[in-house]
């Protein structure tokens, strides 16, 4: 299987991470530059264009707050995006999934350094080595890259955007081949680990992943705009901006509305949220209200292994992605991308600055927009 072309938020983060690799310890204060409203306004300006049709940006911190939108939330009506509009958060979902697993670990229901085969017998081939739960969450499992269902182009996605698969089906399809690397030897971003983590949650609790995410995180934190949809629910609750995907047809580019799409990525990328809720979530998470210490510290622990294929040092803890700017500021969080969407949730460890952005991207070329937003927020 080949990957469906997705928006370039993750690539943007990689570019910035490569510019500087300070290794501040998790609890060290990060000296962010003063808030620069002019730079933020310039970073979010521009849409609608061929790369991004609409943008939402929310920056929060003790030094001040800033929020803004640009472009269109609805191309037909030419109305701006709503600041509190919902969007699909893609791989930002991993923060929620990792938090649920760590809450279970804090209760003694899951042991991070036990093999996942103990909890999910028969799911992985017998020839595979033991792979710990920790290695699923920090992308050092060595499992094969599952790719994405279908032939990988935008036209295929438009035609099949309502198709759905279970996490078990996705895992079974991915593990037909050999391991990509030995467990714990390299770090390679892989959604397969989070599908297995979602299955682990279901096995240990006896409930669907969507139920556990809602019961353990969304409801206690009163994240009213955040939804864990069932895999057969393609709808995006209002208010929301429309998402489009560009497809070449008869020599011209046609924008197809892909706002309604299957949330089949589930524990790896199925959640829906908005900027205020994501801000509230990361603040609660970093303050220890979601995952108790010392398990929270585990989220910020990045393994000392090579990062493949990006090169350089590793970037992922348990659910968290680390980015180091050229100015030495270290931010933690995640980016996400789905057809039509590019999102990001990043914060310094001390919460001196938090940013949430959401781009409606009809192409795979939104990296420049995301890079500009991240640089304007954290400097460098």
Describe the structure.
The protein is of the alpha+beta class and 380 residues long. The chain has a single domain, classed as DD-peptidase/beta-lactamase superfamily (Beta-lactamase). It contains 12 helices and 10 strands. Strands 2-1-10-9-8-7 form a 6-stranded antiparallel beta sheet, with helices on both faces. A two-stranded antiparallel ribbon has the order 3-6. Strands 4-5 form a two-stranded antiparallel sheet. Helix 1 packs across helix 12 and helix 7 packs across helix 8. The longest helix has 14 residues. The protein starts with 8 loop residues before the first helix and ends with a helix.
Task: Give a nutshell description of this structure.
One of its GO terms (molecular function) is hydrolase activity. Helix content is 29%, strand content 16%.
Q: What is the fold's blueprint, element by element?
A:
Layout: H1 9-18, H2 37-44, E1 54-60, E2 66-71, E3 87-88, H3 93-106, H4 116-119, H5 133-137, H6 154-160, H7 167-174, H8 192-205, H9 209-218, E4 244-249, E5 252-257, E6 272-273, H10 275-286, H11 295-299, E7 321-324, E8 330-338, E9 340-348, E10 354-361, H12 367-378
Antiparallel strand pairs: 1-2, 1-10, 3-6, 4-5, 7-8, 8-9, 9-10
Signal peptide: 1-24
GO molecular function: hydrolase activity
Protein name: Class A beta-lactamase-related serine hydrolase
Radius of gyration: 19 Å
List low-confidence stretches: 1-27
Strand ordering within the main sheet: 2-1-10-9-8-7
CATH superfamily: DD-peptidase/beta-lactamase superfamily
**Subunit arrangement of the protein:** single chain
- The computed structural class is alpha+beta
Q: How many separate helices?
A: 12
CATH fold annotation: Beta-lactamase
* Major β-sheet annotation: 6 strands, antiparallel
CATH architecture: 3-Layer(aba) Sandwich
Strand runs, count: 10
Query: Terminal Cα separation, in Å?
Result: 38 Å
Q: Percent of residues in helical segments?
A: 25-40%
> Number of domains in the coordinates?
1
SSE topology string? HHEEEHHHHHHHEEEHHEEEEH
The fraction of residues in strands falls at: 15-25%
**Basic shape:** globular
Domain Beta-lactamase-related: 64-372
Keywords: Hydrolase, Signal
InterPro entries: AmpC-like, Beta-lactam-related, Beta-lactam/transpept-like
GO molecular function: hydrolase activity
